[in-house]
Specification:
Radius of gyration: 15 Å
Distance between the termini: 44 Å
Largest sheet: 7 strands, mixed
Number of strands: 7
Oligomer: single chain
Order of helices and strands: EEHEHEHEHEEHH
Shape: globular
Length: 180
């Protein structure tokens, strides 16, 4: 398909929260899953529950997607962190944008999940301009939310979305620390 897959994948990382960005197209999911499969990485993707209708739901589950009802997601962090504790190896992927539309700020669940589970945050990406996808850097969250978000923003600063008008790095900067 003309894409290049690049990876800074570290096989020593057995458990991680993987964030995928920019997320502006329906193609992001299948392209991202294909790249991870080529790299030999099994990942479980968290996706909104409304995508799990027949036959799409069957396909999503086949590729490791897990439904999340965002209206009833209060226990998402604790419940998913418990999965990490029971697993020998688990990579959970999600889009911090939470949608393909342009967002004012990112969802913060990925950060608190990584903190609660004591796992790194791995940066996955699709760069439509370069036709490049893969696994980039990772961070171990420090608890300094703003500083860690700045590192994430720096990584994604040169990535281009399928629909550039829906991708705004300021969405990362505008993300607010939640009281937990």
């Amino acid at each position: 398909m003309g894409w290049t897959i690049k990876s800074q994948y570290d096989p020593k990382i057995k458990k991680a929260v993987v964030i995928g960005a920019p997320h502006t197209s329906n193609w992001d999911f299948p392209l991202g899953v294909m790249a991870l499969r080529v790299l030999g990485i099994k990942i479980n993707i968290i996706a909104k529950h409304t995508l799990f209708f027949f036959p799409l739901g069957f396909i999503m589950r086949f590729f490791g997607a897990v439904p999340l009802d965002r209206k009833n997601s209060k226990n998402f962090v604790k419940g998913t962190a418990a999965l990490f504790q029971r697993a020998d190896q688990l990579w959970v992927g999600l889009s911090p944008e939470g949608t393909r539309k342009k967002v004012e700020s990112w969802k913060t669940g990925f950060y608190y999940l990584a903190m609660e589970a004591n796992v790194p945050i791995v940066f996955a990406y699709l760069d439509y301009e370069k036709k490049e996808m893969g696994i980039g850097e990772y961070i171990v969250p420090t608890g300094d939310f703003k500083a860690d978000l700045q590192l994430i923003k720096n990584f994604y600063a040169d990535k281009s979305a399928c629909y550039p008008d829906k991708w705004d790095l300021e969405g990362i900067t505008n993300t607010k620390v939640k009281n937990r």
